[in-house]
Amino acid sequence: MNNYTLNKPGSEQKKTSIVGAFRTLAPLLTGDTKNLALATIAGIVNSGLMLVAPLLIAHIVDAYIQKGDLHGVLVFSSYLFALYIGSAIANYFQTLLMGTVGQNLLFTLRNAVFNKLQALPVAFFNQNKAGDLISRINNDTDKLNQFFSRSLMQFVSGSITIVGAAIFVISINWRVGLAMVAPAIALLVLTSLLSPWIKRKNASNLKTTGGMSAEIQESLENFKVVVAFNRRDYFRQKFSEINKINYDASISAGIANNTLTPTFSFASSIAQLVVIAYGLSLITSHLFSLGTLISFLTYVAILYTPMRQMATVWSDFQLALAGWDRIHDILSLESDMKTVIAAYSSEYASATSPVLEFKNVNFGYPNGKEVLHNISFRLEHGKTYALVGPTGGGKTTTASLMARLYDPTAGEILLNGRDIRSYEVAERTKKIGFILQEPFMFTGTVRDNIIYGNEEYAKHSNEELEAVIKTAGLEALFHVFDKGLDTKVAAAGGALSLGQKQLIAFIRAMLRKPELLILDEATANIDTVTE
Question: pTM here?
Fold first, then answer.
């Protein structure tokens, strides 16, 4: 049996490249290719219009303001205003389109994660806490949504604007341009050096958030036991400890995420100072015009403002990457419970074949001792068998192997003379009824829980279903519910006794008419007469 533990020691050190992350995300974005393309075009238009504006400002200053031509100022100011209107419209459509992409990604991603969870075996859920899985579906996917909705196009547009501004200023005056761009290059080097550290801090924060969710779920699920043993203090202390761990991780992630912001502001101020000093010296030498100096100062704002914004965007990106690592951990898992080619074809299975046979079966849980060793037995049709043994002797494990909740680590299990692994899930579950030690109830009614997974009776009316129950000889069990099939059932059957839950599970299994019925202490909580 595979080890499916997600939070393995050292897993938070795993590094995912930016290209690798986008490559694995790409299939989830295929339905939004058009929106992404339009948003990119809108971003390019927005950036292009903003880059042209300083040139227009320089022309207005040099050609009209210095000569006192009010008419020219008004005419070209109207052109400048039109540029800003066009930029605002492009920015609006870019935001709208990327918001749609982000929500679609969130919807698709949550479906993909949940469907993957449905495809994984029982062993996966035994090895991972439900609260952490919920956190991955809710919190981690939302980090990606926020990045795609708000940050991705800001990142792309900012990158275009920064590169465009650098090209414009260098083409206008390469000496002043290079002096202005130099602090930005230093910032890019610093960002690349700090990015792995920022990502690690965010990954640690997400992991502790998942751990806190798991702790809350465990406390609430077992609240009856907490109250019965008066151990509220114990759970308060446990929650306080894990909350403190999450608090420390959040503080560290916050410090990491905000490290770059003041650095970018400082670099912007340095660039302005360099442009003013160098530009004024060139003006005195008649190598620079006043309009050009103003345009350069505008380009400083155009270049460094998105860089300041990208400090936040980059932190969001690192957070999204950390979240994607945790999501991809689930999506990359593959179940080891595969359907195989039948070792014994059903057409050759004789009428004398046992309904179930264990042949030299071994089984052990990951990182644990072997529970079953070289077990062989046959269960014949029409007979009742009991597995008797001490607690921890492997009775429930054997029952789980019978229902193929797990596969043996060695040996084989035959159902009607055929390898149990060769049956498709729907075919196998139709042949086997399994009543667990702790039957689970779904929120709804008794009817909903009885016909769960049984398409044969899904369209039956209550009267027809009651007739089926009566025909099956289960009417006496059914009468314990005050409102019959309409009796309300809360999540996990909270409004019902454990015995009533076991009766529902029993009726549910019997109505499937299985060839093999497995009862794992299924009457432990039922009164003697009913049993």
Answer: 0.66
CB atoms within 10 A of CB 332: 9
Residue-level pLDDT at 346: 46
Could you tell me how far CA 179 lies from the centroid of its own chain? 45
Instruction: Clarify whether residues 432 and 355 are in a common domain.
Output: no
393, 491: one domain: no
What pLDDT score does 13 carry?
Answer: 44
Residue 378 is predicted with a pLDDT of 92
Q: Tens digits of per-residue pLDDT, 278-325?
A: 778 888 777 777 888 888 888 888 888 777 777 667 777 777 887 888
Q: Which of 9-13, 111-115, 410-414 shows the lowest per-residue confidence on average (mean pLDDT)? A: 9-13
Number of domains observed in the structure of the chain: 3
Specify the CATH number for the domain of residue 507.
3.40.50.300
Q: Which residues contact 261 (CB under 8 A, 6 or more apart)?
A: 308, 311, 312
| Paired tokens of 242 | 């894990």
Inside any domain, residue 4: no
How many residues does the structure list for the chain? Answer: 531
Beta strands (DSSP E) in 311-355 are none
Measure the CA–CA gap between 531 and 516, rounded to whole angstroms.
19
Closest CA to 2 of 393, 330, 407: 407
Residues 416, 314 within the same domain:
no
Examine the domain organization and report whether 506 and 385 are in the same domain. Answer: no
The number of C-alpha atoms within 13 Å of 425 and in the hemisphere containing its C-beta is 9
The DSSP bridge pattern shows strands 432-435 and 516-519 to be parallel
Residue 266 belongs to a domain:
yes
C-alpha 268/C-alpha 265 separation (Å) is 5
Structural domain contains residue 10:
no
